[in-house]
Amino acid sequence: LANGPDCGPTTAWRLDHYTYPTNGELDHLISPVFDLTGSMNSRLLFDHAYVEYSATYTDGFRVEVSQDCGQNWVVVFDESG
Questions:
Q1: Domain assignments of the chain as residue spans, ordered by start
Q2: pLDDT 10s digits, 5-17
Q3: Has this prediction a pTM greater than 0.85?
């Protein structure tokens, strides 16, 4: 994604949790399969921002990866509040 002008992203994903009308909602972003065969130094990089709306509404953000086409998932990042 970082191949735009000045190495900036050409695409991005944004979710507006601030105006969500109900608790318990889940959103999923599922990427295409990345074939990293032969890659020795692969990394997953991302930026995120989070601000708590109020003490009664909490949100979370979790990143999971799979190495077996979705049969099993490993959490590599988890933040909530």
A1: 1-81
A2: 555 556 677 777 6
A3: no
